[in-house]
C-alpha cells in the first residue's frame, strides 16, 4: 500500500504553527477524494512529524521526498555544505505545504537542490517561464522567489505561500 514512510522531526518558527494546523485539516478533508496525502501534525514543542508517502507521484510527494533525501547526503564536499540546515528545511517545508494545500493548477515538477551554505533552492520550469524558491541557510538573508516570464525576470522579496502560488500558476 505505502511504498515508504519516514518521519522527520523539524523545529518550526513558532508563529507559523497555524499554517500546519490548516494543512492538517485540509489533508484530512482531502484524503478520500485524492487518495493518501501527507499527514501533518503539530505538537506543543513547535515541531511537526511529516510522513512522506511516496507512491502518489504528485509534485508535492516528489518535492518532499527530494527534501528528505537531502538529509541523507554527506555533511559537505569540496564545494560546500550538502545537507540543508534545519532553518532552510523547516522554512521550505512550510512554504511548500502552504502552497500545495491550496487549490491550484497542475504545476510542473520542481527540482530540489542545496546551495553551498545549506540553503535550499527549488526550481519549476515550463514553456511559459521559470520560478525558483530560494530559502537561505539562516535568517541572516531574506528568502525570495525568482521568476522569469517572456524574457522579463525579477525577484519577489516576500517568500510566502500565496506568492509562490501566484508565480507557479503562471507556469501553466
What does this structure look like?
This protein has 172 residues and is of the alpha+beta class. It has one domain (7-169). Helices cover 31% and strands 28% of the residues. The protein contains 4 helices and 10 strands, in the order βαββαββαβββββα. The chain has helices at residues 17-34, 59-70, 86-100, 161-169; strands at residues 7-11, 39-42, 47-51, 76-77, 80-81, 110-114, 120-126, 129-135, 144-149, 152-156. It has a 5-stranded antiparallel sheet. It has a 3-stranded antiparallel sheet with strand order 1-3-2. A hairpin with an 8-residue loop joins strand 8 (129-135) and strand 9. The longest helix has 18 residues, at 17-34. The chain is globular and about 35 Å long. It starts with 6 loop residues before the first strand and ends with a helix.
Amino acid at each position: 500500500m505505502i511504498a515508504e514512510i519516514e518521519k522527520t522531526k523539524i523545529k518550526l518558527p513558532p508563529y507559523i504553527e497555524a499554517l500546519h494546523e490548516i494543512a492538517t485539516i485540509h489533508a484530512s478533508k482531502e484524503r478520500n477524494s485524492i487518495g493518501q496525502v501527507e499527514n501533518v501534525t503539530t505538537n506543543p514543542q513547535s515541531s511537526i512529524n511529516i510522513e512522506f508517502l511516496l507512491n502518489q507521484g504528485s509534485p508535492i510527494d516528489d518535492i518532499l521526498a527530494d527534501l528528505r533525501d537531502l538529509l541523507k547526503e554527506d555533511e559537505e564536499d569540496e564545494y560546500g555544505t550538502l545537507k540543508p540546515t534545519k532553518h532552510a528545511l523547516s522554512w521550505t517545508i512550510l512554504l511548500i505545504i502552504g502552497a500545495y494545500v491550496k487549490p491550484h493548477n497542475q504545476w510542473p515538477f520542481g527540482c530540489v537542490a542545496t546551495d553551498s551554505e545549506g540553503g535550499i533552492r527549488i526550481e519549476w520550469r515550463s514553456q511559459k517561464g521559470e520560478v525558483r524558491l530560494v530559502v537561505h541557510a539562516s535568517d541572516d538573508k531574506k528568502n525570495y522567489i525568482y521568476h522569469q516570464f517572456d524574457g522579463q525576470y525579477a525577484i519577489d522579496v516576500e517568500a510566502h505561500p500565496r506568492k509562490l502560488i501566484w508565480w507557479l500558476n503562471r507556469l501553466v
